[in-house]
Amino acid sequence: MRERAAVWALAFGQMLGYACFFYIFAALILYWQQGLDWPHWVLAAGPTLAIAVSAVLAPVIGRRVDRGQAVVLLTAGPLVGAAALGVLVVWVAPVGYLLAWAGLGAAQAMCLYDVCFGLLVRRHGAAARATITQVTLVAGLASTLAFPAGAWIADHWGWQVAVRVAIFVAVGVMLPVQAWGARVVARGVPDEVSQRARRVIPWRAIVAERAFVRLAVLFALVNLNHWMLMNYLRPMFDGMGLAAGVAVAAAATVGPAQVIGRLVLMGAGGRMSSLWALWFTMAVVVAAPVFLWFSGGLHVLVFGFAALQGAGMGILTILRPVLVAERLGQERYGATAGLMAIPGLVASAVSAPLGAGLLAFGGPWLVIAMAFVIALGAVWAVASEG
């Protein structure tokens, strides 16, 4: 009973972490564009730098997870993220902005999904899918929290107050809740798992496997598709002529759609293999930009886009650690997931400047067309995988 509550605590902490350290860019980008006299490339460089820092740290942190240090990481991460947000508030200049995002990248690597899932895989092994689903059901609501809360606070008191609220949430709520949950779960890790951590598998041996390469390409393409769209939802909706209220409501739909997608996967249970679930996800990911394209003429379709985009990414969030553990082994999950994160994070980093360039050059329609092409590339990767 106590451990079940601890998993819910981790889930709540992950939701707050993603809202405060990740979705804050997408939630506040419109206010930065309107209120800061900076080139758009500077704003886009922030999350790009964060992702680059996270990518560099991911393999090292993965090794730490395999060695049983997930609790330390999940506890220290919120402090690092809060400090970075503090820099964002007090040093309102391009240099301060970029430094803050570098700190947020470190926080993302230390205390979000990969470390949390690594702890759950160490604790439950092949049965971790159930607890991973539990965490993602709650954490998937992060965008639902970040978009309306960020917009409401920034509209009334300015973006700096919105960031200060995020600092308070990270330190006052996320930190104690997540630290407690991680400690309780870690106490249940079997002794043989802790002994395995002493065996080090070379990086080269991991990346040389064909299954690793194919999965890495797949996750990278899906990340590029998703974050190119998510980072610029508000400016894109603005350019498509959607009313501000509709735009915020549609953006906030992505989170619940992630939860619904995960519930569908959970309901299917053992009746749906990982490969079939992957094909279902790809169909959804391809359909999403089609809905977005036609929502310019029929605005209600934007909610169909948000539902499909959220559901696809929601399911893949569960499938990613499951596929890594199934195809590449549970005993080295932390190191493998850390290496696997690099191409996905690089794709996420590229998504911000790529989206900004496409938006400036051809408007939202060019961004949507590119998202569709990338989705087709992900379908090819799945076909190659299995």
UniProtKB/TrEMBL annotation:
Keywords assigned by UniProt, alphabetized: Membrane, Transmembrane, Transmembrane helix
InterPro entries reported in the protein's UniProt record: MFS_trans_sf (IPR036259)
Lineage: superkingdom: Bacteria
Listed transmembrane segments: 7-32, 38-58, 70-92, 98-120, 132-153, 165-186, 207-228, 240-264, 276-294, 300-323, 335-359, 365-383
Name of the protein in its database record: MFS transporter
Protein source organism: Paragemmobacter straminiformis
